[in-house]
Specification:
Blueprint lengths: L2 H9 L4 E5 L5 H10 L3 E5 L3 H8 L10 H10 L2 E4 L10 E4 L14 H12 L5 E5 L7 H14 L6 E5 L18 E5 L2 H11 L6 E3 L3 H32 L3 H8 L20 H14 L5 H27 L8 E5 L14 H11 L3 E5 L5 E4 L2 E4 L5 H6 L2 E4 L8 H7 L2 E4 L13 E4 L1
Helix pairs in contact: 1-7, 5-6, 8-10, 8-11, 11-12
Length: 436
């Protein structure tokens, strides 16, 4: 199959699409293509996840069970662990994790494993798109030689592009079709075909000159957020010394209709993007003899925030003549952001760890995370109710889930450290509330 034949199959939506990785990124993408009429296979290494998907049970909130069940019944979506499905796939999209090693170096082992499987099943006319966030050069320096060894000439025998994922889990406003896609192919024909594919599900697709530009754009998006969150965190530290309300300062500045975008302080940064993507770029630039100073400074500030939260909590208890050692602390939320169950890189875990190291008796409540394991221990979530608030010497809000009832907290707890500047809507809470 040549480029024209593949283009026709994409346009008439008879192309067979396989999405490798069925997590927060891959599953919504697969579902979007299935809704558009394509026959889609979700490929994942987890037997539990594949079984769940084939039973119509979605592991993520962005894809409701009912939606998945309908697509399963219509035959537009199925899940498998068998990479042999790639031999019959016109399109393979790679959406696997790209974490950091303990040394803070990029770990692209999942990308390499998935790519090697694709290479083993590569056939003429196949389009491969990498969506996993990675450092600039990955597509052309690593994937292109791999596929060339198995499939001939890029842009003629097979087609390769990078299109960064932009999924924001649990965001009700921005779904797959609402977020513009950036596409960079290793040749013009690769870009054209990849862009044509994404235009079937996303109205706004931008073609850039190379995969390297697309890779860099993704990293810059999240470096931007990382640096500005660090600035907001440092603002909070300065406001505390000046006796000024941080949230009030930010809200006042946000009334300016140009040249300003509000970011808010918190216990640090977490998730699979912001901190990790910044580290990927800093690592790549170090190899090129350049020190990414802004990234390093932002990392230093953001990584210091858990200790800052612990100190705030300790100071608040001291004013009540209560030691942190032995104090009962209820942590609300361990996910890295509201209304999801994702704890990857969550600063809440570091706050809890530091509290435990200083002798606090810590329990946590999180409606999206029933249990969590870290630092060799496992904690089970408790129920966040009046009794839990009353029994705690301090309640610390680490994730602002919509399920938390702040009126109950305000009327039942005695001391609250709010790191997320939650919207309380309560003028005279019984609890003493200390905000970051």
């Amino acid at each position: 199959m040549n480029a024209n034949a593949l283009s026709e199959r994409i346009q008439n939506r008879t192309a067979r699409v396989t999405v490798i990785g069925q997590g927060y990124v891959g599953l919504p993408l697969a579902i979007a293509f299935a809704h558009a009429g394509y026959k889609v296979t979700g490929l994942d290494s987890s037997p539990e996840k594949v079984d769940s998907l084939n039973q119509g049970r979605s592991p993520i909130p962005d894809v409701p069970h009912e939606e998945l069940q309908k697509l399963r019944e219509s035959g537009h979506y199925t899940a498998t662990r068998d990479f042999a499905v790639l031999a019959d796939s016109d399109v393979a999209i790679i959406c696997v994790p790209t974490p950091l090693r303990k040394t803070k170096d990029p770990d692209i082992s999942y990308v390499m494993s998935a790519s090697e499987e694709v290479a083993q099943h590569l056939h003429p006319g196949q389009l491969i798109v990498l969506e996993s966030t990675t450092y600039p050069g990955t597509t052309e320096e690593i994937l292109l030689p791999l596929f060339s060894d198995h499939g001939g000439v890029a842009g003629v025998d097979f087609f390769l592009a990078f299109s960064p994922e932009r999924i924001d889990p649990a965001n009700p406003k921005f779904k797959v079709r609402d977020i513009p896609k950036v596409v960079g192919g290793v040749t013009h024909e690769c870009s054209r075909l990849a862009a044509s594919l994404y235009r079937q599900i996303v109205p706004n697709v931008l073609e850039v000159s190379s995969p390297r530009v697309a890779e860099m754009a993704k990293l810059y998006e999240n470096v931007f957020r990382n640096v500005n969150i660090a600035l907001a965190n440092e603002l909070a530290l300065m406001c505390h010394r000046l006796g000024v309300n941080t949230r009030e300062v930010i809200d006042a500045a946000a009334t300016k209709p140009f040249g300003f975008m509000p970011f808010h302080p918190g216990p640090g940064v977490g998730g699979h993007c912001i901190g990790i993507d910044s580290a990927y770029l800093a690592w790549k630039m170090k190899l090129n003899g350049y020190d990414a100073r802004f990234i390093h400074l932002a990392e230093e500030i953001n990584q210091s925030m858990p200790a800052r939260v612990v100190q705030m909590l300790s100071d608040a208890l001291n004013k009540r003549q209560r030691s942190l050692n032995g104090a009962k602390v209820l942590a609300l939320g361990v996910a890295y952001k509201p209304n999801v169950g994702d704890v990857r890189e969550s600063p809440a875990l570091e706050v809890i760890h530091q509290l435990q190291e200083r002798g606090a008796d810590v329990c946590y409540a999180d409606p999206h995370v029933p249990k969590v394991a870290f630092n060799g221990t496992q904690l089970d979530a408790v129920v966040a109710d009046e009794k839990a608030y009353r029994d705690a010497d301090c309640v610390v809000i680490l994730t602002d889930h919509s399920e938390f009832d702040y009126k109950r907290i305000a009327s039942s707890a005695s001391l609250v450290v709010d790191t997320r500047n939650a919207t309380w809507g309560i003028l005279n809470p019984k609890a003493e509330v200390i905000r970051l």
